Amino acid sequence: MKQLLTTFTTLIALGACSAADALPGGLPIDRTPKPDAVRVQEAQSLKWGMWVNWSFSTFSGHEWTPGVKDLSMFKPTGCDTDQWCKVAKEAGMGYILFLTKHHDGFCLWDTKTTDRKVTNHPFKRDVLAELRKSCDKFGLKLALYFSQGEFRDNKDYHPGGYTPEMKKAQLTELLTQYGPIEFLWLDAAQKDGGLSHEETATLCKALQPNCFVGFNHGPRASQEDLRIGERGRPAPLTDSSGAGHGSQDASKFAGFLVAEFCYPILPLHKGGADWFYSLPVHDNFCHPARKLYLDYLESVKYGNFFDLAVNPGYDGRLRAIDVETLQQVGRWIRGEESGPKNLALHKPVEVSSTFSSQAQHSKSNINDGDRYTGWSADLKAREAWVTVDLQAEREVSQVMLCDSPYIRTQEFDLEAKIGDEWKQIASGTTIRRELWIDFPPVKARLFRLNLRKTSNTPFLAEFQIIGHE
Fold first, then answer.
1. Is the pLDDT of residue 26 over 60?
2. If you ran DSSP here, which 8-state letter would residue 361 be given?
């Protein structure tokens, strides 16, 4: 089967070459395989990118929108791909990751495989083709998200259901008609569409050998070279703690060339969607620029793809708060303004107790800037405190705490020493792998974290105090 598929896809690739190269405004596809080291260097030079999700779920207010028979569920009043790319460029991003098709089977390009497409809709615009031109105009690379399966295989919409042949034909269109694709983010939430991951990767590599391929769930393919980190965080390629919801086994990381992590610019909230435009009530709700910038810095350090989901609304444009936030991050990246820093990095630390003298339990791990090291208190302790001395008064309005992988904290509070008194400035319960805390600005030199109640030996991986020098 694999040999037949390879032959089939090679013929497709050769036959489609002239069509791809003739794409209006598109760049030619280089089908000469590059050395892995070159591809990795090219990937790491892109820094981070904007993940654009725009489909039925934009208008339903839900992450998944099954059962849609009437295409009028998709009802945009416009589409401004130039705005998406302009904002991405201003933010220092190197690429756009675009949702071509979600689990509902609605295609955002002019596919020949189904009538469930944007060009068979009153909108009648090939959004992907427009985005390709905008990416070229603003000097951005293009990557694609693709749902491999569809709800119940969409038997109500496709005679005989969504078939492996349809999946092959759709991927072939995407990889031959829209210029060079930097990477494919392949979603297995609705399974593999009848074509295994091994066969899918073989097909994609035959069409564009320099396109990275990654799956968010399911069995590993031999040609899979992109490690997906859904709702993950910056991490070294071989560290599974950065993989978020991904189910990939760290023992099977051999062969991956680049790690990806992604999350929405919308924080977790009640009602509406996260990965798509939510609801108008959330139009002023956004992760702070400081968090995005600091994650960007870590992403660059580890050479990750950082895919930030920033999603158009009903008018096909990005929210004003997203534009403003990303422009601020861009100014910090370019050095036009002084960006936020971890003021606690390598500053003196005092703790209530330590598990042992071994380096893996050292208090210095608390503020070494590495989320993958940590400090443990005395074995029998069920409460503890940590004090960081910034060595000079600094104005601070945000901290980041991390106690992953040992989620033990059940109650905590944060204090700053103002004059001769410790004053509480924040409190909470579970810390988990990452907790950002904002509070009214305070000016202090000493900050103390009190772990008031823990389920086991108190543990802390990071205590970052965020501010400006």
1. no
2. G
